[in-house]
Prior knowledge:
9-stranded mixed β-sheet; 9 helices; UDP N-Acetylglucosamine Acyltransferase, domain 1
Amino acid sequence: MSRTLALILAGGEGRRLDPLTRDRAKPAVPFGGRYRIIDFVLSNFANSGFLKMKVLTQYKSESLNTHITRGWRLSSQLGNYVETVPAQMRTGPEWFKGSADAVYQNLNLVTDEEPDFVFVFGADNVYRMDVRQMLQFHREMGADCTVAAIPMPVEDAPQFGVIEVDRSGRMIGFQEKPSVETAKTMPNDKTKILASMGNYIFTTDSLVREIVRDAGRESAHDFGKSIIAEMYQHSRVFVYDFAQNSVPGQGPKERGYWRDVGLIDTYYQSNMDLVDVDPVFNLYNNRWPIYTFQHNQPPAKFVFADREHDRVGTATDSLISEGCVISGGSVHRCVLSPQVRINSYSHIEDSIVFERVNVGRNCRIRRAIIDKGVDVPPGTTIGYDAEADKRRFTVTESGIVVIPKGMMIEPQ
């Protein structure tokens, strides 16, 4: 087998996910109740059998470091590991200037491991991927670099690197976050672009050459606009069609599912995808599980069946994590992290609730994201009066109310 090393880029600030990223790195933001966003890329590598992973961190990384240290222990005896690598300033007293500079400042990881191929993947997306299939494509094409890509609506072009390919799959054009008007659309569908997923495979010599070259010039030191945009013009850069990737236990509905959860509205909708009766992304695929830290909490509990006084603990079309207590309240289309308590006569719908949130009696909450450790006073109403919500909380353009971690909410 080829020697491989996975470098997971987890150092971004995640400003567009504020206030969820005020106290944590974006890859550490909870997702799906009991997971963190980074669990998805790590699980893809683990399930694919690539068990040497270095996670490059920088901003507000304490909770991310703790999560990986406690939840991702592989057998060091067999040479397997998931290790966090904080910014070390090995090349001078500077933070990472971009994703490419993050790898340049940590080239010792590559030279120490001496892999044949290096994976450079982002840590901010939700998807399943058999990475072996992408590596096989890379080797068959004799590529110096392979970029994973997926069709996206042309309206989203300003958020992505936009790729052009020839019939053989070789990259012949690249635009970094172009405007909708200037974005190159797909030849067979003018409503779509071919978007880079930010996942790359490099032959090691090619990676080292390009990273060192970029470090010696004026650039953004970013993989998209600095490395890929230059590299395809003089090297063999190929594009891997993620829609062709398949994993065991995956249904046709999920094939090609990939979400960049860097915006509050996208993050919210991606969580809501999980609670459908037949979800487009199925967490219950035991043949390709999503691994995470295991909480030592008792099972979820639903108490009171006092139908005469409408005091019944219920949850419908929802994900309820361990340690939750639904005490005489009702939950509909919600995602609850561990140790959430919903008290009597409260109704929560279409919402995401993080760890250790307590919702008092007689509350009404809808279309909200409530961060960790919030105590919602009895009688509180959230999500029913947009103007009142904007005076107290963050409200997105689509009307999602976001309550920051540990916020003290005044009683109404």
